[in-house]
């Protein structure tokens, strides 16, 4: 009797150990990735938060100044200019590339022969390096041998302006270059969503007498809404991190007309030797992105199909 009891206890102990091992195994497999994320992501975040409360020129010991950087940020006109430009950048990308990408995706989805060719052609700009694309558009905007030459030949002299040198057009000229590079990515995402549509709903709507616009608005768009919302969330987050095209093409000029938060932060840290104040700007950018993520998360909890 005692022998059977001991055997039963040993079996239970073995089962408990097996369960523990099974529970620990996924974490052991994930541990290298988690450690890497803590070092690569968590480390810079903690460092940025710490630096935002200091006055440091990158060489001398950092001096703790509390919230002084954020007080200075509240009264910084260039910061507000850059923030407003970020919002304009976001509005541009929420409209023009999305509409263009969806329109082209709808056209390609109707093509029966050569669909892969058109996908490849549309997606090619996205795989070109950012600096290369920016340089190409710098040549296009060049007033001496760029698009202005053709505009003058065609009689549109009023449009032959300094696209990157005018305060009113510099930001949108850079956004157009980035949009040309970016919209192919949206086309691919929309094509994937369009391939998963329920064709029976579309056929039923056509039988009921719906025109193409009604089919698009009431049948197609509701089915691809999760993809549209995902694109919007990514665009909003990426808009606050936009840097490369502005830095290569205008460096925020002329007169801060195309300045963004990321380029302003870079100038403060590298040119202005104010890493502490630049960290405060970076932290503000992170807060905006966090608010966007929390906002979409709240909508998902309320039942939105995101």
TrEMBL record:
One of its GO terms (biological process) is transmembrane transport. Its main location: membrane. The chain crosses the membrane at residues 89-108, 120-140, 170-194, 229-248, 277-299. One of its GO terms (cellular component) is plasma membrane. It holds the Pfam family BPD_transp_1. Keywords: Cell membrane, Membrane, Transmembrane, Transmembrane helix, Transport. Residues 83-296 form the ABC transmembrane type-1 domain. Gene3D superfamilies: MetI-like (1.10.3720.10). This is Sugar ABC transporter permease. It comes from Neobacillus cucumis.
């Amino acid at each position: 009797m005692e022998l059977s009891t001991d055997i039963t206890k040993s079996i239970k102990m073995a089962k408990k150990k097996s369960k523990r091992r099974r529970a620990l195994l996924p974490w052991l497999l994930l541990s290298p990735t988690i450690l890497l994320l803590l070092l690569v992501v968590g480390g810079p975040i903690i460092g940025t938060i710490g630096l935002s409360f200091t006055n440091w020129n990158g060489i001398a010991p950092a001096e703790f100044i509390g919230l002084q950087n954020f007080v200075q940020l509240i009264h910084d006109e260039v910061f507000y200019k850059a923030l407003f430009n970020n919002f304009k950048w976001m509005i541009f990308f929420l409209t023009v590339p999305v509409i263009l990408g969806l329109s082209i995706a709808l056209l390609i989805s109707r093509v029966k022969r050569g669909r892969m060719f058109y996908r490849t052609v549309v997606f090619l700009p996205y795989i070109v390096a950012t600096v290369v694309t920016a340089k190409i558009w710098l040549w296009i905007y060049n007033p001496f041998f760029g698009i202005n030459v053709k505009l003058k030949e065609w009689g549109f002299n009023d449009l032959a302006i300094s696209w990157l040198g005018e305060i009113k057009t510099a930001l949108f000229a850079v956004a157009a270059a980035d949009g040309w590079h970016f919209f192919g990515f949206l086309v691919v995402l929309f094509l994937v969503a369009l391939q998963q549509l329920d064709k029976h709903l579309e056929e039923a709507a056509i039988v009921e007498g719906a025109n193409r616009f009604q089919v698009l608005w009431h049948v197609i768009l509701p089915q691809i809404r999760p993809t549209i919302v995902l694109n919007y969330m990514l665009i909003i987050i990426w808009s606050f991190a936009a840097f490369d095209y502005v830095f290569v093409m205008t460096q925020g000029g002329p007169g801060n007309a195309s300045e963004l938060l990321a380029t302003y932060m870079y100038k403060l840290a590298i040119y202005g030797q104010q890493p502490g104040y630049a960290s405060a700007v970076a932290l503000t950018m992170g807060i905006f992105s966090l608010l966007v993520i929390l906002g979409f998360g709240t909508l998902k909890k309320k039942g939105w199909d995101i």
